[in-house]
User: Which sequence fits this backbone?
Protein backbone atom coordinates (compact mmCIF):
# COMPACT_ATOMS: atom_id res chain seq x y z
CA UNK A 1 0.00 0.00 0.00
CA UNK A 2 1.27 3.44 -0.95
CA UNK A 3 1.55 6.02 1.84
CA UNK A 4 2.06 9.80 1.78
CA UNK A 5 4.42 11.37 4.32
CA UNK A 6 5.64 14.90 4.78
CA UNK A 7 9.15 15.27 6.15
CA UNK A 8 11.03 18.25 7.58
CA UNK A 9 14.80 17.86 7.79
CA UNK A 10 16.68 20.25 10.08
CA UNK A 11 20.39 20.93 10.42
CA UNK A 12 23.07 21.85 7.90
CA UNK A 13 21.09 20.62 4.92
CA UNK A 14 21.29 23.53 2.48
CA UNK A 15 24.34 24.15 0.31
CA UNK A 16 25.51 20.51 0.64
CA UNK A 17 23.68 19.00 -2.39
CA UNK A 18 21.05 17.52 -0.05
CA UNK A 19 18.22 17.97 -2.57
CA UNK A 20 20.09 16.48 -5.54
CA UNK A 21 21.39 13.51 -3.55
CA UNK A 22 17.94 12.89 -2.06
CA UNK A 23 16.34 12.95 -5.52
CA UNK A 24 18.83 10.30 -6.70
CA UNK A 25 17.96 8.08 -3.71
CA UNK A 26 14.22 8.66 -4.22
CA UNK A 27 14.52 7.69 -7.89
CA UNK A 28 16.43 4.51 -6.93
CA UNK A 29 13.81 3.53 -4.34
CA UNK A 30 10.81 4.46 -6.50
CA UNK A 31 9.73 7.23 -4.11
CA UNK A 32 7.56 9.94 -5.70
CA UNK A 33 7.08 13.50 -4.43
CA UNK A 34 8.96 16.76 -4.03
CA UNK A 35 11.84 18.32 -2.12
CA UNK A 36 12.55 22.00 -1.51
CA UNK A 37 14.62 24.34 0.61
CA UNK A 38 12.72 26.40 3.17
CA UNK A 39 13.68 30.02 3.98
CA UNK A 40 14.51 29.03 7.59
CA UNK A 41 17.22 26.58 6.48
CA UNK A 42 15.15 23.39 6.69
CA UNK A 43 14.47 21.05 3.79
CA UNK A 44 10.83 20.05 3.19
CA UNK A 45 10.07 16.72 1.51
CA UNK A 46 6.81 15.16 0.38
CA UNK A 47 7.21 11.45 -0.29
CA UNK A 48 4.88 8.72 -1.53
CA UNK A 49 5.84 5.04 -1.69
CA UNK A 50 5.24 1.70 -0.01
CA UNK A 51 6.25 1.12 3.63
CA UNK A 52 9.58 -0.57 2.88
CA UNK A 53 10.72 2.11 0.41
CA UNK A 54 9.65 4.90 2.77
CA UNK A 55 11.54 3.28 5.64
CA UNK A 56 14.75 3.14 3.58
CA UNK A 57 14.11 6.69 2.34
CA UNK A 58 13.67 7.97 5.92
CA UNK A 59 16.95 6.27 6.89
CA UNK A 60 18.61 8.21 4.07
CA UNK A 61 16.98 11.50 5.16
CA UNK A 62 18.49 11.04 8.63
CA UNK A 63 21.99 10.67 7.11
CA UNK A 64 22.01 12.87 4.02
CA UNK A 65 24.97 13.32 1.69
CA UNK A 66 28.55 13.90 2.76
CA UNK A 67 28.80 17.40 4.22
CA UNK A 68 25.27 17.42 5.60
CA UNK A 69 24.70 17.54 9.35
CA UNK A 70 21.15 16.38 10.07
CA UNK A 71 20.01 17.39 13.57
CA UNK A 72 16.40 16.18 13.34
CA UNK A 73 13.86 14.67 10.97
CA UNK A 74 10.14 15.11 11.62
CA UNK A 75 7.52 13.29 9.59
CA UNK A 76 3.77 12.92 9.53
CA UNK A 77 1.31 11.13 7.29
CA UNK A 78 -0.89 13.06 4.92
CA UNK A 79 -3.35 12.58 2.09
CA UNK A 80 -2.15 10.67 -0.98
CA UNK A 81 -1.57 12.99 -3.95
CA UNK A 82 -0.33 10.38 -6.48
CA UNK A 83 2.85 12.11 -7.67
CA UNK A 84 4.25 10.87 -10.99
CA UNK A 85 7.93 11.35 -10.12
CA UNK A 86 10.29 12.98 -7.59
CA UNK A 87 11.07 16.64 -8.29
CA UNK A 88 13.30 19.31 -6.82
CA UNK A 89 11.19 22.43 -6.34
CA UNK A 90 13.15 25.59 -7.07
CA UNK A 91 12.53 28.82 -5.21
CA UNK A 92 9.58 30.80 -6.46
CA UNK A 93 10.52 34.38 -7.28
Assistant:
Amino acid sequence: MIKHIEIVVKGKVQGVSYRAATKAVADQLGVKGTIKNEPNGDVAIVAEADDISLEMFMDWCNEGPQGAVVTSVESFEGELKNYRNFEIVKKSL
About this structure: The chain has two helices and five strands. The beta strands are 2-12, 32-37, 43-50, 69-77, 86-88. The domain at 2-81 is CATH 3.30.70.100 (Alpha-Beta Plaits).
